[in-house]
Amino acid sequence: MTYSVQLYSVRDAIEADLPGTIARLAQIGYTQVEPYNFAARADELAAAFAEHGITAPTAHAPLLSADQDEIFAAATRLGIGTVIDPYLPAEHWQDEATIRDTAARLNAAAKKGAEHGIRVGYHNHDWEISSRIGGTTALEFFAGLLDPELVLEVDTYWAAVGGEDPAALLARLGDRVVALHLKDGPVDHDKKAQLPAGQGRLDIWGVIAAATSLEVGVVEFDDYAGDIFEGVAESLRYLEAGEPSSAEAASGAAK
Questions:
Q1: Predicted model pTM
Q2: What one-character DSSP code corresponds to residue 165?
Q3: Is 244 exposed, middle or buried (0-12, 13-18, 19+ CB in 10 A)?
Q4: What are residue 120's DSSP bridge partners?
Q5: Which pLDDT tens digits describe the chain residue by residue (255 residues)?
Q6: How many angstroms separate the CA atoms of 254 and 141, rounded?
């Protein structure tokens, strides 16, 4: 399993100095990143990636509200294999008809992506989990409408905020989940309270183990009260150290 970092986490630094931000992430130890809004700055990103040996297996782009041809062309330029639509607001997840329309549009986007050799996916927040359609989460109802080639990137923190056990949700979603967003914290809506992996209430190793087709774990913060570069560095160190043994976990719990 490899680890990446969502560049939205360091968005202020990106806006101020994109090449310097990529250099700093590389110094921390990241070899992969997940860009957002990458079509607008594809040339800058490509140059920074080449200079620092960075790849981008996944990326976020508003496939359902922007120029798909431009997005897929930029993804090809950057070597991005999977383009994920990262956000549809809560009102899109409250009724069956709207969800069916969203699924049909994403299926169509996936067909266009396939022409470029690019896979398409979707990334959740909490409202796709808290909303229920026919006794199941809106995300699961949605997943059942997607063509087989579409994938999911599950934000495990927002899944927990939405009221589900993330590991159980991942088990139900099965092989469609190829990427996870990994962050920690008190599991509430306070974005500033988010923490590096291993420092909050989320069972990080439990959710990783539950994603049986996982290709990449993506470190991400929606916001952070501390130094964001320290935050993403602490997450990477925790994840690369691997799951603690039962003895180590018991010792840590006793402290």
A1: 0.94
A2: -
A3: middle
A4: 83
A5: 799 999 999 999 999 999 999 999 999 999 999 999 999 999 999 999 999 999 999 999 999 999 999 999 999 999 999 999 999 999 999 999 999 999 999 999 999 999 999 999 999 999 999 999 999 999 999 999 999 999 999 999 999 999 999 999 999 999 999 999 999 999 999 999 999 999 999 999 999 999 999 999 999 999 999 999 999 999 999 999 998 754 345 334 433
A6: 41
Contact 60, 34 (CB under 8 A): yes
Alpha-carbon separation of residue 132 from 79, 115, 154 (angstroms): 37, 34, 17
CA 78 to chain centre: 18
The one-character DSSP state at 63 is T
Strand 58-60 versus strand 2-5 pairing type: unpaired
When computed from its CA atoms, the radius of gyration of the chain, rounded to whole angstroms, is 18
- Residue 68 corresponds to which amino acid? Q
What values do phi and psi take at 151, rounded to 5?
Answer: -125, 170
Q: Positive or negative, the Cα torsion across 16, 61, 171, 30?
A: negative
Query: Any idea which residue has 């396939």 for tokens?
Result: 114
CA distance to 65, 217, 253, per residue, from 70 (Å): 12, 26, 50
Q: Is residue 10 a contact partner of residue 38, using CB atoms and an 8 Å limit?
A: no
Please enumerate in sequence order all residues whose Cβ is within 8 A of that of 223, keeping only pairs 6 or more positions apart, or say none. Answer: 191, 192, 194
